[in-house]
Amino acid sequence: MTSSYPSLTRALAEALVDVLWFIDGSEDDQMDQDEAVKVMEGVGHVVSTLPSDQRQELIELVGEMAAAENNHARREFLEAFPEGFGLIDDAS
Q1: Is 13 left (phi over 0), alpha (psi -120 to 50) or beta?
Q2: Which end of the chain is more exposed for a tag (fewer CB within 10 A), N or C?
Q3: Each residue's pLDDT tens digit, 15-61
Q4: Residue 59 near residue 82, CB atoms below 8 Å
């Protein structure tokens, strides 16, 4: 079986975004919203502590994903991802 992903990093980035997109769009009856916030904040903490080169790689991957995304709402989520999850700060 051949992977459709060019790298493990790309596969994991897409999986992470899929999970976060689901959590972000979940309703109260699908998921406890307090728990959802904890997960989102936890991911934000982890990715914000990545070394600079790894943060930049993730920013580029998410940018590529956003450029290829046909769903407008998901594209907006992807475009906001770097700042929303602490990959870049407000001063950047």
Answers
A1: alpha
A2: N
A3: 999 999 999 998 888 899 899 999 999 999 999 899 999 999 999 99
A4: yes
